[in-house]
């Protein structure tokens, strides 16, 4: 599991280093995730090295919400001012995301021929 953690953190560091070196607008961890994805595609054995850690992280994903909850309590007064706008924005953006995802999924199924009915 330590090797897997080292691999994941190395890709995050690689992403951060690339962003700092080339002054990119994308966050370093996101670029590191892209590098990691490409590495998984190009080198199949890497999946076996990181699978146990990713399952552990996914199992304990709720722990990552604790800092967000602390942030909510810390800035609770801002929710009094901007809460309605924030809630409306979240509802609107979530609706757009779900609709866009459904449309793209439908389009991909149609293009791949798997959405055809075989009656």
Automatic annotation (TrEMBL):
The chain crosses the membrane at residues 25-43, 55-76, 82-109. It holds the Pfam family LrgA. It is found in: Cell membrane. InterPro entries: LrgA/CidA. It is a multi-pass membrane protein. It comes from Bdellovibrio svalbardensis. This is CidA/LrgA family protein. Keywords: Cell membrane, Membrane, Transmembrane, Transmembrane helix.
């Amino acid at each position: 599991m330590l090797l897997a953690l080292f691999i994941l953190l190395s890709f995050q560091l690689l992403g951060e280093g690339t962003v700092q070196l080339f002054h990119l607008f994308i966050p370093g961890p996101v670029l590191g995730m892209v590098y990691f994805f490409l590495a998984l595609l190009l080198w199949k054995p890497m999946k076996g090295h990181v699978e146990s850690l990713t399952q552990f992280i996914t199992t304990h994903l709720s722990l990552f919400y604790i800092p967000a909850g602390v942030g909510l309590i810390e800035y609770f007064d801002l929710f009094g001012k901007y809460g309605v706008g924030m809630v409306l924005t979240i509802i609107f953006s979530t609706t757009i995301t779900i609709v866009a995802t459904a449309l793209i999924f439908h389009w991909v199924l149609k293009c791949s021929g798997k959405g055809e009915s075989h009656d």
